[in-house]
Amino acid sequence: MTTPAIHYPAPDTHVTIRGLYKSFAGQPLYQDLNLDLPKGKIVSIFGPNGCGKSTLMNMVAGLIPVDKGQVLFDGKTLAETTIGYVFQNYRDALFPWMNAWKNIAYPLIRRGMAKADVTARVEELARMFDIRFDLQRYPYELSGGQQQTVCIMRALAPKPEVMFLDEPFSALDFEMTLFIRDKLQEVQQATGVTMLIVSHDLEDAVFLADEILLLTRRPTSVAEIVPFNLPRPRGAEAMSDPEFIRVKAHTLAVFKREMAAG
């Protein structure tokens, strides 16, 4: 009888995924997936359409149940871990009956935090993001970029250990994309929060990442994990850096290989 292989976490692992299974309508999506995500780093998930990028992140975040398997955060369960989540559709993610300030404060109020501490934390985030619009305005009164900024601030409010971002730039113009990229890097460097980002855009997937997690077609597995070690902060000029160009080209080659395999 063959003894199952034991997959020990790699050093400096924050999120440990073991034996993860998931199927839909009897069709397997993930089968016995084992994965280690590094602590204090930004990991981008990229792969062919329909391979389950968002599904993987949502299973790790506890939004979609797994059929089988285990996900641990520094050896802790999800219930013992503080997380933040930025949804793709920020227009639906914000509470329309609350102004921006109350949306940001919501997770803190739910935790029973004292009013003065809530105010201090929201003010701290407003300074961090250099907010120049009125946080007393309601979501429908804000631009798309401002709404997404509020979503990110709300996700950061409880000081998460792990932050999940589903297509955070998909509905932003280029100017706002550059702004959010800068702020996410500043936050990550200041707090050391582990970030997991799903993207359908190759440039976005590479730009912020310390590692790009490339997925195969269904049934989905890891095609390759590509490191990207360009120093931070990375401004717009990083897109012309030879290392960025090299990593982007390699990531594209792996993506094309997986598309052809399908």
TrEMBL record:
Q: Which UniProt keywords apply?
A: ATP-binding, Cell membrane, Ion transport, Iron, Iron transport, Membrane, Nucleotide-binding, Transport
A GO cellular component annotation here is:
membrane
Q: Which domain of life is it from?
A: Bacteria
Q: Where is the signal peptide?
A: none
Keyword Transport in annotation: yes
ABC transporter domain ranges (all copies): 15-242
Q: Its Gene Ontology molecular function terms? A: ABC-type ferric iron transporter activity; ATP binding; ATP hydrolysis activity
Instruction: Give the UniProt family note.
Output: Belongs to the ABC transporter superfamily. Drug exporter-2 (TC 3.A.1.117) family.
Q: What is this protein called?
A: Nitrate ABC transporter ATP-binding protein
Source organism lineage? Bacteria, Pseudomonadati, Pseudomonadota, Gammaproteobacteria, Enterobacterales
